[in-house]
Design goal:
With 485 residues, the chain is mainly β. The protein contains no helices and 40 strands. Helix content is 0%, strand content 52%. The strands form 10 sheets. Strands 32, 33, 34, 35, 36 and 37 form a 6-stranded antiparallel beta sheet that branches. A 5-stranded antiparallel beta sheet has the order 6-30-29-28-27, with no helix packed on it. The radius of gyration is 22 Å and the shape is globular.
């Protein structure tokens, strides 16, 4: 999870700054946000964990409790008084869409396109009822407005002036977009932007409090959004619900976690939440279904505080987490298991700050999934999509090591050759009896050292995927899961 406002990003557990090797030779390494991976000394070059495939190990069992999840804070709602200040940016973000295949025929990815914008963006993807994709390209930059792109035969672009950084959106059954967004830094208003482009006030906070917006989905009873609130010494989460008649309510969740919970809606519209908590007995995934919370023991410390929830008919079908030992799958009534061959990315470090002399060369290597996966349901199976990154970069050092002379000195790692790439991997997991099978592996050289994967599932089961690599372009395509068995 990334909470962003006023051009400033907060990094949650599971993310850190990493230095990126540039695409071209001679480029200096630049820093950007990545999941927290293990950095070994240059030359170690070993990834921790099993690199085989298909093996699974049982872990723990679930416990159940009613009521909230242990949080003791109360959302500080207040009256919406006066006129709200201007929200978001007004400068339009120019984007274009180009048909660009990911792989040669026969390829299971349909509707393959590339979205390129005037500046790097954070993509959010959603599926229309018929399976085609919508994408919000968010520049996360003060003064600039996001762009909404509907990926149909003739792509449609909608500028979103007044939408600040970090908005969530959903597509309803009529294929119409809804956005959930907060206001500027010191303006505690929460808004719903309707398909007609008007902003409805949902609720306001009291005092020096900020809304953070995390997710939005439509269920049989209407829209449900996951939002957070943030003060200097307290924070919390809530659900914003819009009934069919159009009225909104706020439901305090009392969740005792600093990380954004995993969020989904069951088929019947029940909100499903999951987050990770450290206990005296180890790490557990706390899964909320209505007023009941279930604790699922995990095999290892998670790489992210946000497990992925696979929705079922009335509750979670499964919960998936990327831990220090690999991907884990759990259900409410079965042990968590590890999927073999999914040990997370471990990267050797070529950090110039650790040098005593600014000279020589280094090779940065590593392999494995670096981010939490996208998950979907196909019948009774769980489908896990992730990007396996292969980092392979040669660098040399130029400049001088900072010593007593203080500011002004610089030692840079200069890229000589970058052979990094990524592979899109899909694993199909049957739950009873448990068995995991890799059903797709696509080599995607454009992903480089910083692959990101985003996904959404349509009502017909089709998934829309968005991939973002080191060139900052967003590749989008759809997959019919029924064809991958």
């Amino acid at each position: 999870m990334v909470v962003a406002w006023a051009g400033v990003r907060r990094f949650a557990r599971g993310e850190s700054l990493r230095c990126r090797s540039g695409i071209a030779k001679g480029a200096a390494i630049a820093c950007f946000v990545v999941p927290l991976v293990t950095l070994a000394a240059c030359g170690a070059g070993e990834s921790a964990g099993d690199t085989g495939s298909g093996s699974m190990t049982g872990m723990g069992s679930t416990t159940e409790a009613t009521g909230d999840s242990g949080g003791d804070t109360v959302i500080p709602l207040g009256e919406c008084v006066g006129d709200p200040s201007a929200q978001g940016g007004s400068t339009p973000l120019e984007c274009e869409v180009e048909a660009m295949p990911w792989c040669d025929a026969p390829c299971p990815v349909d509707a393959q396109v590339t979205i390129t914008c005037a500046r790097p963006v954070f993509p959010v993807i959603r599926s229309a009822p018929d399976g085609h994709a919508w994408v919000v390209a968010d520049p996360a930059t003060d003064g600039m407005a996001p762009t909404l792109v509907e990926l149909v035969a003739e792509p449609a672009f909608t500028m979103l002036p007044g939408i600040p950084v970090g908005a969530a959106f959903a597509i309803d059954a009529a294929n119409a977009p809804h956005l959930l967004h907060g206001s500027d830094w010191n303006d505690p208003w929460l808004w719903h932007r309707t398909p007609e482009g008007t902003d409805e006030v949902i609720a306001c906070l009291s005092g020096q409090t900020l809304w953070t917006v995390h997710d939005l989905a439509e269920g049989p009873q209407g829209l449900v959004g996951l939002v957070g609130w943030l003060q200097e010494t307290a924070s919390g989460f809530a659900l914003a619900r819009r009934e069919a008649g159009g009225s909104w309510t706020i439901e305090d969740l009392h969740i005792a976690t600093p990380f954004s919970p995993g969020f989904a809606l069951a088929d019947d519209g029940t909100p499903l939440l999951a987050f990770v908590e450290e206990t005296a007995d180890g790490f557990v995934a706390r899964v909320g279904v209505g007023d009941t919370w279930h604790d699922i023991p995990l095999a290892a410390e998670p790489m992210s505080g946000e497990p992925r929830v696979v929705p079922g008919p009335t509750g979670p079908h499964a919960v998936v987490s990327l831990g220090t030992m690999g991907l884990e799958i759990a259900t409410l009534d079965s042990d968590a298991v590890l999927v073999g061959g999914t040990a997370p990315l471990v990267v050797t470090s070529c950090d110039p700050s650790q040098l005593t002399e600014c000279s020589g060369t280094c090779r940065q290597t590593g392999q494995g999934p670096a981010w939490s996966p996208f998950v979907a349901r196909d019948g009774d199976d769980v489908v896990i999509a992730y990007v396996e990154a292969t980092v392979d970069v040669d660098v040399h050092y130029e400049g001088e090591v900072c010593g007593p002379e203080g500011p002004g000195c610089s030692c840079d790692a200069i890229v000589d050759e970058d052979r990094s790439q990524g592979e899109l991997v899909l694993v199909r997991a049957a739950l009873a009896p448990f068995a995991a099978t890799e059903v797709l592996r696509l080599s995607l050289p454009f992903l480089g050292t910083a692959p990101r994967l985003f996904g959404s599932q349509a009502a017909d089961g089709t998934v829309a995927l968005a991939l973002q690599g080191t060139d900052d372009a967003v590749r989008v395509g759809t997959i019919d899961l029924s064809t991958l068995r």
